[in-house]
Design goal:
Length: about 500
């Protein structure tokens, strides 16, 4: 046996993003000693979670519920906003609808039914939330009207969420080891015994009765992307964390865990064509107010099929399928004030022109004549008798085109015109491990692997084809909290069992 360094703890958690840190807080507050292994250095802690805006989707029944989540909301803020409601049923329906009814009903029920109490739990652990005025509401007649079932974000966005969770975990006594890459699970017929990891280059072990995997999916691994998502996915831009390369999933599969969910599917959006991988400010999500054309000058998708946060996660794949994997987003003067903040960043691939003819010449890689014909046909097909309203699905559509636009269709005829070159950027993968309603990882016989739990992106079965914005963080928190509680109970029951057997032996 080697003389490798060995740590001991009750519960070991792999990863230090949202799901992992919720699991850590939950296991520690349930009376166990917790150690977290994080592959990244401390300066890059938090995985994909750090790259989010902290937008989180949960069910609520009106302002009284929201006041519990955001106790700092002022009367003025409440009076100047129409937050509406978003019931558990609506959240569940959204999960079913956007996944073409493939979401696992048991996991989706847990996610939606436990979303509000999990928000209360996060709030009790000092995570602070504020309304998303900028991106999820437009001001009409002095009132912010929220839409799309997602109305709050964490203070300080993703980095704010990660800092709050890490500070709380530290306060409770959780130990986090950075530069620690988990490579193998230590496992026998009795269940989990710990994790082998490389810490600052040295093979090390942590012995524990319970292990929680929360190390994200494999979007940053080109080989796994190509293997599971298919050809061209190696060519996609990778967003978010460079560290989510699939080891957590692989380690569990190696000991007989059951794969589950949409292994050929991923959350992938449209964003700047030329930004390097893992850069900030990639996505370009105001397409519902304009059109997208490919190299042939043709539209290829219903840009206004639904609110942006119900379509953005599936449209990246469609862009990847276009010739040379790019598209241009086109807007005219009438809607340019509605473009999101990311369109104003310095590093954007943008062209501007006073006439459509001039614009057509500037669209790199696009058949200019075909583009002009496409715009002409599009402008002629719009039901301009229906009023434009960005706050609702306004039904202002096109008629008679082979690719319909269902809402927010405006003629593109007032210069100056703006166009943005986009490609596909993968955010996270949908396939992963199978868990039950206790977050216990299932084996190939659909039995729980004693002591092994999972939460977050590496759990399969929730998202298929598409995803409702804000559900990733909620899923990590709901299943992380459950995993932490159950891992702690498991350790305690094992300890009690060993105590009983040693007493009976004596
Ligand atoms: C740009 C961007 C914006 C997003 N915006 C939102 C949003 O606003 N709202 C929302 O709900 N979702 C959003 N998402 C999705 C969201 O980030 C994820 O669903 C969620 O953060 C996943 O949490 P997680 O804890 O499972 O994984 P992560 O937060 O990615 O954490 C996984 C951690 O595991 C670590 N790790 C990986 N392998 C190992 C290993 N072998 N050993 C040790 N550690 C390992 C990683 O370094 C990482 O820290 C966004 C994603 C991106 C990329």
């Amino acid at each position: 046996m080697s003389d490798r360094f060995v740590y001991e703890t009750d519960v070991v958690i792999v990863g230090a993003g949202n799901a992992a840190m919720c699991a850590a807080i939950s296991a520690q507050e349930n009376g166990t000693k917790v150690m977290v292994l994080e592959k990244a250095p401390e300066t890059e802690k938090g995985g994909n979670t750090t790259f989010t805006h902290g937008s989180i989707r949960f069910a609520y029944n009106g302002v009284e519920d929201l006041k519990q989540i955001m106790p700092d909301l002022t009367t003025e803020e409440i009076d100047s906003a129409d937050f509406g409601t978003y019931t558990e049923e609506e959240f569940f329906d959204d999960m079913c609808r956007v996944t073409n009814y493939r979401t696992d009903p048991e996991l989706a029920s847990l996610l939606t039914n436990k979303s509000f109490e999990t928000m209360q739990w996060l709030q009790s652990h000092k995570v602070r939330f504020i309304p998303i005025y900028g991106r999820q509401a437009f001001k009409i007649n002095g009132v912010f009207k929220f839409w799309g079932g997602m109305i709050v974000e964490t203070v300080g966005g993703g980095p704010g969420l990660v800092d709050s969770l890490h500070e709380e975990a530290k306060r409770l006594g959780v130990k986090v080891l950075f530069n620690a890459i988990a490579t193998d699970l230590i496992h026998d017929d009795e269940g989990m015994q710990g994790v082998i990891f490389k810490h600052e280059g040295k093979t090390t072990e942590v012995r524990a009765k319970s292990v929680i995997l929360a190390s994200g999916g494999f979007h940053a691994n080109q080989e796994m992307r190509t293997r599971y998502l298919g050809t061209k996915w190696d060519l996609a831009h990778a967003r978010g964390s460079r560290y989510n390369t699939g080891e957590g999933i692989q380690m569990a599969l190696n000991i007989g865990a059951m794969p589950f969910g949409n292994w050929s599917g991923a959350h992938a959006v449209g964003g700047d064509r030329y930004l390097p991988d893992f850069s900030e400010g990639f996505q370009k999500l105001s397409y519902p107010f304009g059109i997208m054309v490919n190299a042939e000058g043709k539209r290829f998708v219903d840009e206004g099929a639904d609110f942006r946060n119900y379509t953005y996660a599936k449209y990246g794949k469609l862009i990847l399928e276009q010739p040379d994997q790019f598209a241009w987003q086109i807007f005219d003067q009438k809607v340019s004030h509605l473009l999101r903040e990311e369109y104003k960043f310095r590093q954007v691939t943008k062209v501007k022109a006073n006439t459509l003819e001039e614009l057509a010449e500037k669209l790199d890689g696009v058949d200019a004549d075909a583009f002009l014909q496409e715009i002409k046909a599009y402008n002629a097909a719009i039901r301009s008798d229906i009023p434009f309203n960005p706050n609702i699905k306004d039904g202002r559509c096109t008629e008679g085109l082979s690719v319909r636009k269902s809402n927010w269709a405006n003629t593109i005829d007032e210069g100056p015109f703006e166009a943005y070159a986009v490609t596909c950027g993968i955010t996270f993968t949908f396939g992963g491990l199978r868990i039950n309603n206790q977050s216990e990882v299932q084996d190939l016989m659909l039995q729980s692997i004693p002591g092994l739990y999972a939460a977050g992106e590496l759990v399969g079965g929730l998202f298929y084809f598409n995803y409702p914005g804000g559900a990733g963080l909620m899923a990590g928190s709901v299943f992380g909290k459950i995993a932490g509680e159950n891992a702690a109970h498991f350790v305690k029951s094992q300890d009690e069992q060993s105590l009983r057997s040693s007493l009976s032996e004596n």
